Amino acid sequence: MSIVVIGLSHHSAPVELRERFAFEEAQVPAALQELRQSGIATEGVVLSTCNRVEIYAATTLAPEKAFVEMKKFLIVHHAYNGALGDEFYTFTEPHSLRHLFKVASGLDSMVIGETEIFGQLKRAYDLAFAHKHTGALLNKAFQRAFNVAKHIRTKTNIQRGSVSVMSAAVELAEKIFSSLAEHEVLVIGAGETSEKTARALQSRGVKKITVTNRSPERAAALAAELGGRAVPFENWPDEFEKIDIAISSTAASQHILDRARLEPLMKRRKHRPLLLIDIAVPRDIDPAVNAIDNVYLYNVDDLQSIADDYVKLRREEVARCEKIIAEKVAALLEAKKFSTTD
Fold first, then answer.
1. Closest residue by Cα to residue 226 from 183, 193, 181, 196
2. Burial of 243 (0-12, 13-18, 19+ CB in 10 A)
3. CA gap 218, 163 in Å, rounded
4. Phi-psi domain of 177 (left: phi exceeds 0; alpha: psi -120 through 50; beta: other)
5. Over the stretch 53-112, which tens digit does the pLDDT of each residue have?
6. Which of 172, 254, 265, 304 is a good FRET partner for 111, with 20 to 30 A between their CA atoms?
7. Which residue numbers are catalytic?
């Protein structure tokens, strides 16, 4: 008996096709029951997310025969009558186990190293287990996959670091200020990117957020969403005595903050460190302010560069993760071989 995988994902099929083969969670137990009663599989787990639909199965059939029947099962179950090319991929041992471990670890995801898929895979397994559609083979394989994913998360950098401008800004803030909970944020301009950046900071502990915008209504609305307060646009410089982080994203055609204006504000702040995040294009803040002591200015290109560096770091970590997975797969297959001969 061996473990096989059949599926389609963002690597092999567009969303228009993936959605045709997606399973609602309530459908999965009955589908697995049908799969097992047909004799195609003795054990099974269905993973269905926005990016992939996969069946993990333990089967006594020859892999080629199993794949033909599993593909037919998927087509009939979803009443699909369209054309198909090579969108479905198939894996036999040891590649099926390697694929499972990669999926669990976020190495097969659209964003390498993301952690959401771990929870989705865990729920898919728990559902199959609860309805008694798994057995010794899949139980051991999935438990080992979860352990490998946790090992990779703690022993490598694959799931660390920014992958967006907003998260890059958060990481900068955390490097400058050890704890964000005690620091205030000023949002100048209530656009979508500044809102997302403010929310990212809020998710890391920021409690006090002040919003200003040329449209008072928009400022008030965003402040309410963030649980903060709004101030008139002409009064935002007055906030610099209290805040430690400013996110600026206005539609101004020229700088709204330059060195001449910022220097007296820094004196009033007693030169406490100030992080300025300028995500406006054209830029809101004159680069010359970087010459002021304790002022840290980053524009959108700076943040994107930081985000790209982290993406590169994650890619470099993939080789380390692949090595760990290869070792764990070999160990699992060796254990399986001995348990079969006992």
1. 196
2. buried
3. 28
4. beta
5. 999 999 999 999 999 999 999 999 999 999 999 999 999 999 999 999 999 999 998 777
6. 172
7. 50
